[in-house]
């Protein structure tokens, strides 16, 4: 009898172990934008590929729209291991102590997407991701969004039009300097709070690529929008380093492959999504869309020129120079 009972207990223990062995590895992927954006769609694509390539050994749970965490909290949650994967914009790494990413926010630093890719896909991009490791973070890829437009409830044609406006920015000090150079008062707010802040007049205006503006309905509370393309918005896809290093090597390889696929997909849709979003804003008919004349563009460039010099000591003169050298080749 005793032997039988022991055998039964052993069998139960074995089946519990087997169940454990089969339990999928869960990756919680948190982000702050809508699913219907370049980043949101790429996160879904990564999920699909990761689950397919690992044959279900990995389950990816995507939490869009700040459902789990807002901007600042999500980085803390990643470091604590409460989530495993994020794709914050490059403008949000300053509070983590990696200020160099703010180089991506410098006005007019990338003359084209080709120039941008030369940086993100070359040695500069790689060395920037390496700077995350002492923070317990592994950088996997850069995802693209696009060049930013400006919005407010008044026309924004000349730098003087910004005087005294309260403009929502991400946490980057470069963006703070950019808005000040235009004579505006920058205000840092989490992305999830922007629509309401615009609606209630807590801030007067903001900047973002069209896909973010449209999917958050910002155009419904902003009467004027200027296609200024004055700065860039992109992302670093990052994981908790301890989690990543602890994965079985074959699984990590499959996830790297899934990330390569999602990254190619993301880059292919980013521009088109932004063009479509701008068109949708135009069709919604609530916002006047303005394209700067060449003279106005020149005036914006002149007004924003001092920002680079001002930010040299924060970001590093050498880094800015190496970006400028790389982009000049394109
Ligand atoms: C923001 O303005 O906070 C956005 O750029 C958010 C995002 O992740 O695109």
List the ions, cofactors and other small molecules found in this model: (2S)-2-hydroxybutanedioic acid
> How would you name the CATH homologous superfamily?
Bacterial extracellular solute-binding protein, family 7
**What strand line-up does the widest sheet have?**
7-6-8-5-9-11
Q: Which architecture per CATH?
A: 3-Layer(aba) Sandwich
User: What does the main sheet amount to?
Assistant: 6 strands, mixed
How many discrete domains?
Answer: 1
**Strand runs, count:** 11
Give the overall average pLDDT.
94
- C-alpha end-to-end distance: 80 Å
**CATH topology annotation:** D-Maltodextrin-Binding Protein, domain 2
Uncertain runs are: none
Quick summary:
It contains 13 helices and eleven strands. The protein is an alpha/beta fold and 330 residues long. Strand 1, helix 2 (38-53) and strand 2 (58-63) form a beta-alpha-beta unit.
Protein architecture, described:
There is one protein chain. The chain has 330 residues and is of the alpha/beta class. The protein has a single domain (2-328), classed as D-Maltodextrin-Binding Protein, domain 2 (3-Layer(aba) Sandwich). Helices cover 48% and strands 18% of the residues. It has 13 helices and eleven strands. A six-stranded mixed beta sheet has the order 7-6-8-5-9-11. The chain has a five-stranded mixed beta sheet with strand order 2-1-3-10-4, sandwiched between helices. Helix 2 packs antiparallel against helix 10 (249-284), helix 4 crosses helix 13 (317-328) and helix 6 (173-181) runs antiparallel to helix 12 (306-315). The longest helix has 36 residues, at 249-284. The radius of gyration is 22 Å and the shape is globular. The N and C termini lie far apart (80 Å). The model has no long low-confidence stretch (mean pLDDT 94). Bound molecules: (2S)-2-hydroxybutanedioic acid (LMR). Residues 32-33, 89, 145, 170, 191, 208, 212, 233 line the site of (2S)-2-hydroxybutanedioic acid.
